[in-house]
Specification:
- The protein is of the alpha/beta class and 460 residues long.
- It folds into two domains: 224 residues, Amidase signature (AS) domain (Amidase signature (AS) enzymes), CATH 3.90.1300; 194 residues, Amidase signature (AS) domain (Amidase signature (AS) enzymes, Alpha-Beta Complex), CATH 3.90.1300.10.
- 39% of the residues lie in helices and 15% in strands.
- Strand 7, helix 8 and strand 8 form a beta-alpha-beta unit.
- Helix 9 packs across helix 10.
- The longest helix has 30 residues.
- It starts with 16 loop residues before the first helix and ends in a 12-residue tail after the last helix.
Length: 460
């Protein structure tokens, strides 16, 4: 991971949760001190980055004092005890306002925690606040929300990516060491890549969605954003309610590089940088995978139908009674969504099953697939067109192009920060076989630990 600091950096920038946990248990640090450091960083940086939309110091510090009291009593709830964590604003928290990024829910406070938040509390984590989400998580840019646009810590004129916009900015800037995000088409991995942190989308249904506001029920996932893969694993274990299995007997990994262009145009410098990082992580034996180019159009079309139909199902009554309360761009997407016919949805479900089976066949030949997480670097806030090579393409389509297939097929996928291109972060995406979350996290924690990559691309 390139350790160059972003323009806006707080206390937790690049810090390891494992190290912080050891210091808490050694008594050289308290949870109150950590939580106050988070609150101080938020106070200094949030007016610039707009990552947090709700913070309550008294609530956070009360949780921290409880964690410290448990340590004093000799009670240890696990490695996240006393660690500050941020929660995306589409995930319910009983003690913080949860708006889902929309005027429809301004000031709303849920009665109960989401299951993933409940598990965090049971593990002794300190929930410091709620982070900005693109309205109803329906957008990959992170600049359409009741609370405005989140800003990239590397350049505050630029987007974070979305929809877990504030969670990625909060971790990348060092306001907190961990955050929860959600991912329906790339909403954890896109902002993780654009902000220079680790973002993990688990296999479908690995983490309960109870208490998470739905976008598309067959595509939604909850997962961690962190500074390090090992930290992401610790958070995943808590919210999944289980411990990751140890690495299987080591053997040479079969790694497939998804050929550039398979899912759309890629910035040439970014492509070179990511490919170089893949070689450093996996050696020279990367094999190019070309069969996915034949599936990509079908994957995109299938996901679009499922997402549109399921999203409109969630918002049909609001679209009828109060369409003016949606942000204009999100409302336009929902207006398109209502055009999906029943037969198209049923057909898309069949296509999804077929594409899952096709990916199972691909993973008989490979252990992992790798590609750029996002084919461009962060664009300026509100930009909706970007030039890639000689082509002018839609920013939103570009952001989603390399991530959404793995929501459709439910495969675990992680974005790793692999340096800078023209001063902005880029990410390497690593995709595992269905249900192989544990092995993906263990392998990447092992390979990526302390890994340094070049900050500028080289010729390929």
């Amino acid at each position: 991971m390139n350790m160059t600091k972003p323009t806006h950096a707080g206390y937790f920038f690049a810090q390891s949760v494992t190290d912080l946990a050891q210091r808490l248990r050694a008594g050289s640090l308290t949870s109150v001190e950590l939580t106050q450091a988070a609150l101080d960083s938020i106070k200094r940086l949030n007016p610039i980055l707009n990552a947090f939309v709700c913070v309550d110091a008294s609530v956070a510090l009360a949780q921290a004092r409880k964690a410290d009291e448990l340590f004093e009593q000799g009670l240890d709830l696990g490695p996240l005890q006393g660690i500050p964590v941020a929660v995306k604003d589409n995930i319910d928290t009983f003690d913080y306002v949860t708006t889902y990024g929309s005027a429809h829910f301004a000031g709303f406070k849920p009665e109960h925690d989401a299951v993933c938040v409940k598990r965090l509390r049971e593990a002794g984590a300190v929930i410091v606040g709620k982070t900005l989400t693109h309205e109803f998580a329906y957008g990959p840019t992170g600049d359409r929300s009741l609370q405005g646009a989140a800003r990239n810590p590397w350049n505050a004129d630029c987007i974070t990516g979305g929809s877990s916009a504030g969670s990625a900015a909060a971790v990348a800037s060092g306001m907190v060491p961990l955050a929860l995000g959600t991912d329906t088409g790339g909403s954890i991995r896109i902002p993780a890549a654009l902000c220079g942190v680790v973002g993990f989308k688990p296999s479908f249904a690995s983490v309960p969605l109870d208490g998470v506001f739905p976008l598309a029920s067959s595509l939604d996932h909850v997962g961690p954003i962190a500074n390090h893969v090992e930290d992401a694993r610790l958070l995943f274990e808590v919210i999944a309610g289980r411990t990751c299995a140890p690495l299987a007997n080591p053997r040479p990994l079969r790694i497939g590089w998804i050929r550039s262009g398979s899912f759309g145009p890629v910035d040439a410098e970014l492509d070179s940088q990511v490919y170089q990082a893949a070689q450093q992580l996996f050696g020279e034996g990367l094999q190019e995978v070309d069969e996915l180019a034949q599936l990509s159009a079908d994957m995109k079309a299938t996901l679009q139908v499922l997402q549109r139909a399921e999203a409109f199902n969630v918002h049909a009554e609001r679209m009828q009674s109060a369409p003016h309360m949606f942000e204009a761009e999100v409302r336009e997407r929902l207006e398109l969504s209502c055009e999906v016919r029943g037969w198209q949805y049923i057909r898309a479900q069949s296509s999804q099953a077929r594409l899952k089976a096709a990916m199972a066949q691909v993973f008989k030949r490979y252990d992992l697939l790798v590609s750029p997480s996002v084919p461009i670097t962060a664009t300026v806030v509100d930009a909706r067109e970007v030039q890639v090579g000689a082509q002018d393409i839609d920013v939103r389509a570009a952001l989603l192009s390399h991530t959404s297939a793995w929501n459709l097929t439910g495969l675990p996928a992680i974005s790793l920060p692999v340096g800078l291109v023209r001063g902005m972060p880029v990410g390497l995406q690593v995709i595992g076989a269905a249900g192989e979350d544990d092995q993906l996290l263990r392998v990447m924690a092992q390979r990526f630990a302390g890994h340094a990559v070049a900050s500028e691309p080289t010729e390929r």
